TrEMBL record:
Protein name: Coenzyme F420 hydrogenase/dehydrogenase beta subunit domain protein
Source organism of the structure: Methanobacterium lacus (strain AL-21)
PANTHER family tied to this protein: 7-HYDROXYMETHYL CHLOROPHYLL A REDUCTASE, CHLOROPLASTIC
InterPro entries from the UniProt entry: 4Fe4S_Fe-S-bd, 4Fe4S_Fe_S_CS, Co_F420_Hydgase/DH_bsu_N, FRHB/FDHB/HCAR-like, FrhB_FdhB_C
Pfam families, A to Z: Fer4_7, FrhB_FdhB_C, FrhB_FdhB_N
GO molecular function: iron-sulfur cluster binding; oxidoreductase activity, acting on CH or CH2 groups, with an iron-sulfur protein as acceptor
Top-level division of the source organism's lineage: Archaea
Segments traversing the membrane: 380-398
Sequence ranges assigned to domain 4Fe-4S ferredoxin-type in this UniProt record: 5-35, 41-70
Record's keyword terms, sorted: Iron, Iron-sulfur, Membrane, Metal-binding, Transmembrane, Transmembrane helix
Length: 426
């Protein structure tokens, strides 16, 4: 597929909303804006400023990404696994600081690694994401320079994040050694941008990646607020996770502090899967130096504080993990790669096994240059159902109707793929 313009990427439904194009544009002609209908970020281009340099398209991870060459180049001495990519070693662990561990997503490994690296002078700052102070429904990527700022940015944000819009700040800051924390699509964009920008490649010394099944659109959070009869204008703070594991969502408005345990019941509805996330085959952040996910394992089901699954892909990241473990900053235990896969069965099924069924029945697809697994017949039925759900959600009348549909019907609707495809295994 030949694409010359970032707007074409967006029109073909291939934009991941990462914000890389905004940062690399030398003319500042691109701005990531929220498309209210879709509930995602898309690029807006001021054609008068654009000088057709094509840097945006060269660093765009949306329409093509050569996984094979990139991962071989980055992690050449690694083992390879078709489901989790290249790796040196796999672990389960958590921060030994109880406050950090309890108040993060799944063990606080990312927050602890960033804080310790900052204290040891390994990094001068970290590109992370917090929710905006004046508008807590909107995420704000920024360069954290202190322990407090890193903590402020902890916990998963289940809404679109244009993380790479802040690469501009990263390139211009006087800080020399920066860590980045992002979802697979963010790291894909950063890796592509690093290929054409030496300064960026030298400054980013470690890429911490989060596992990701998909990022719910803003419309997911909006439905949840409506179901709770909360006025989004009056929201003072939103934390999607925290308070132990798997944790709860905390919403503060002008009057109350509300704790919601079953938030995923609404936010995670198929209506709110961004179309582009259906075409991503990277669940464990295969281009990150270290990847982190929840420990969804039976033996950890009673762990109410939190532990993370960790995949280390570089010697540098492995040494960092070992040294933090020796200095008692983190607790680290080696696990077999089979355990990593067991902890992510549903997510890996979606990203790897049923992936091809979504690509085959849809018009425009990204080029990844990797071999995919063969889906089952029922995966095609599930894929049609997901595409139809997203299509339905594109109508404003349907979105207005959604809050009035009884919860039980919504839950049954979400369970449909599991009901028709019960034997699925990765
Ligand atoms: C959209 C999404 C989908 C996920 N899907 C899965 C999954 O399928 N399986 C699984 O096991 N784990 C998944 N995770 C990862 C999991 O929720 C934890 O982020 C991970 O286990 C790390 O936990 P931690 O305690 O070490 O992170 P913390 O110490 O709490 O730090 C989290 C870090 O991630 C950054 N961050 C949070 N949200 C975002 C975001 N949306 N974009 C960019 N940066 C962000 C924060 O700024 C912070 O630095 C998902 C996370 C997100 C945000």
């Amino acid at each position: 597929m030949i694409i010359n313009n970032i707007l074409e990427v967006s029109k073909k439904g291939l934009c991941v909303g990462c914000g890389t194009c905004e940062s690399v544009c030398p003319k500042n002609s691109i701005k990531m804006v929220i498309n209210k209908k879709k509930g995602i970020y898309l690029p807006n281009i001021n054609q008068k400023l654009c000088n057709d340099c094509e840097l945006c398209i060269k660093s765009c991870p949306g329409y093509e990404l050569d996984f094979n060459s990139l991962s071989s180049e980055l992690f050449n001495k690694c083992n390879t696994n078709q489901l989790i990519g290249k790796f040196l070693d796999t672990f389960i662990g958590y921060s030994t600081n109880m406050h950090i561990r309890y108040n993060s997503s799944s063990g606080g490994m990312i927050t602890q690694i960033l804080i310790s690296s900052l204290e040891l002078g390994i990094i001068d700052g970290a590109l992370v994401t917090r929710m905006k102070k004046g508008n807590p429904l909107i995420p704000e990527p920024f360069i954290a320079k202190t322990k407090e700022e890193i903590i402020e940015a902890s916990k998963s944000k289940y809404c679109p994040v244009p993380l790479n819009s802040a690469l501009n700040e990263l390139m211009t800051t006087k800080l020399k050694k920066i860590a980045v924390v992002g979802l697979p699509c963010h790291i894909h964009g950063i890796r592509k941008a690093e290929k054409i920008n030496n300064k960026l490649r030298k400054k980013i010394i470690i890429h911490l990646g989060i596992f990701c099944i998909y990022t719910p659109t803003f419309n997911g959070t909006k439905l949840l607020l409506k179901k709770l009869s909360l006025n989004e204008e009056k929201i003072k703070n939103i934390e999607y996770r925290g308070k132990g594991w798997p944790g709860s969502m905390k919403i503060i408005d002008h009057k109350h502090e509300i704790i919601v345990n079953e938030y995923w019941k609404f936010i995670g509805l198929n209506f709110f899967i961004p179309f582009r996330c259906l075409k991503c085959c990277d669940g464990t952040n295969e281009l990150a130096d270290i990847s982190f996910g929840d420990a969804w394992l039976p033996e950890y089901s009673n762990d109410k504080i939190g532990s993370s699954i960790i995949i280390s892909r570089t010697k540098f990241s492995l040494e960092l993990l070992y040294s933090l473990n020796e200095n008692n900053k983190i607790n680290l235990n080696e696990i077999d790669v089979g355990k990593v896969i067991e902890s992510q069965r549903g997510m890996l099924y979606f990203k790897k096994k049923s992936f091809e069924s979504r690509i085959k029945i849809s018009r425009n697809s990204p080029e990844y240059n990797i071999k995919h697994l063969n889906p089952y017949l029922m995966d095609y039925v599930t894929s049609i159902y997901i595409y139809l759900s997203i299509y339905l959600a594109s109508f404003s009348i349907f979105r207005k109707l959604l809050p009035h549909i009884p919860d039980k019907i919504l839950v049954l609707y979400k369970l449909f793929p599991t009901l028709i495809n019960r034997k699925k295994r990765i």
